[in-house]
Design a protein that fits this description.
The chain has helices at about 5-25, 30-35, 45-70, 75-100, 105-130, 140-160. With about 160 residues, it is an all-alpha fold. It has a domain at about 55-160. The radius of gyration is 17 Å and the shape is elongated. The N and C termini lie far apart (about 55 Å). The mean pLDDT is about 95.
Length: about 160
């Protein structure tokens, strides 16, 4: 993969990580601590391990996919992949703001579902272009699906009747 593709891909993903990380600071707040959470809630230490690995995979797989589409001369598909990636990264960063900063648990559950669908679409596009080399990106929608279930469960546990 070309450095000229990897650099902007990595920069976009890093910006998403920073924006989401800033929004996630309230995860250490009394508000978050007081939320009722399901027993399968991962320990806090899991998130700084899982997300950097997923972000690195998104950046590398996306750069390889964009390079391959360019090499094939598939300009329309390349533009479509870029739009799908931009949408996905926007949804990714938005979830943290919706959940932690705005404290909109129901809206966050819906946003997590949209992120899962977007992540699955991004993976589908990458696998279509790069085959098995892009398969590790499948961990991203799997994690997002888990986050959707978790987010929805947290919302259900903390809704006021």
């Amino acid at each position: 993969m070309a450095f000229r593709t990897l650099l902007p891909s990595a920069a976009a993903v890093a910006a998403t990580a920073v924006i989401g990380g800033l929004a996630s600071r309230p995860a250490q707040s009394p508000w978050y601590e007081q939320l009722r959470k399901p027993p399968y809630q991962p320990p806090r230490q899991a998130f700084p391990i899982v997300w950097p690995a997923l972000y690195a995979d998104i950046a590398v797989t996306s750069a390889a996919t964009l390079d391959e589409l360019e090499a094939r001369g598939e300009t329309a598909q390349r533009k479509a992949y870029l739009a799908a990636l931009a949408t996905n990264l926007t949804l990714n960063a938005a979830w943290s703001w919706i959940f932690f900063s705005r404290r909109k648990l129901g809206t966050a559950a819906v946003a997590a579902a949209a992120l899962t669908a977007s992540s699955a679409d991004l993976t589908r596009r990458a696998v279509r272009v790069n085959g098995a080399k892009a398969a590790p990106l499948g961990l991203y929608p799997a994690w997002c699906a888990f986050a959707t279930v978790l987010s929805t469960h947290i919302w259900a546990l903390n809704r006021r009747s």
